[in-house]
Amino acid sequence: MFSAYLGILVAALVDVAFLATLAIVAAREIIAGRNWRNLRVLVLIGVLIAGNIAFHAEVYVFGSANDSIRIDIAAVIMLITLVGGRVVPSFTRNWLARQEKGRLPAPFSLFDVASIAVSLVSLVLWVGLPNGAITGVALIAVAVIQSVRLARWAGDRTTSDRLVLVLHVGYAFVPIGFALLGASVFDPLVVPSSVGIHAWTAGAFALMPLAVMTRASLGHTGQPLKAGAGTQAIYLFALCAGLLRIIAGLVGSMLLMEFAGAAWVAAFGGFVLLYGPILWRQPPVWAERE
Q: How distant, in Å, are the alpha carbons of 96, 115, 198, 220 from that of 48?
């Protein structure tokens, strides 16, 4: 609110301090729990920090920050690819194991390793060469690979449990974003690049965190792992925000863009109103009950 009065240096220090603090807290937890595989998450937080510093420097020098924004978006997509690639099939498997026998999520395999690797390569290309033909081909190829990866997690069997289903719906915005960005390289008049970006930032960046935040909040406060009407409304608002923002970019509608913004605010505002009191008054259990 006061960055214009504080000056760019103070504003940048305050802004970067948040991610730096997050990195310190995350490192402390990783070391305490000896959960060394999460060090890669710390690396991506480091990329976010670097991108954030570059953002302020780029704004100061050039007055805009397109390159650094792509760095940070790419870092968050990789976080979702890594973390989502663990929690979505894991929670799905745990829930399906209690249902009738049927298809279970495919276990983590070389296919997942390859999908993560090609996603990283395509994002690096997008950051450095956003309009290159090779970037467009890579993005579309990754969209197909990420779609296959998501299909391997048996999300079609989770429709009766919204707490699990929303994880799959949220992750679906990842390949959608890759596909739209790839298409924008070859026909930016029909598919503007902003549409693909907002598939990620308004879609995946909303639904995936909300899906994990609601589940973790319920589990860590000893509540039943069930998405009530309020929680489902939060999911619906976030889904509408993502879809409306994509459609608004395709048809050039400011009205739909405003509706998308209102739905985004309703989703996160709803989380604060619904889960804030629970988190405030309930002591943590620290062990999610499956």
A: 35, 21, 18, 27
Neighbours of 47 (CB within 10 A): 16
**Which residues does 239 contact at the CB level (< 8 Å), separation at least 6?**
169, 203, 207
Lookup: tokens for 163:
């707490």
Neighbouring CB atoms inside 10 A of 256's CB total 18
Distances (CA, A) of 283 to 219, 222, 223, 228, 274: 11, 9, 11, 21, 16
Please list, in sequence order, all residues whose beta carbon lies within 8 angstroms of the beta carbon of residue 33, skipping any fewer than 6 positions away: none
Confidence grade of residue 263 (pLDDT, cut at 50, 70, 90): very high
For the residues 186-203, what does the mean pLDDT come to?
A: 94
Cβ proximity of 217 and 278 under 8 Å = yes
**Whether pLDDT at 24 is above 50:** yes
Residue type, 58: E
Domain ranges (residues) in the chain: 65-281
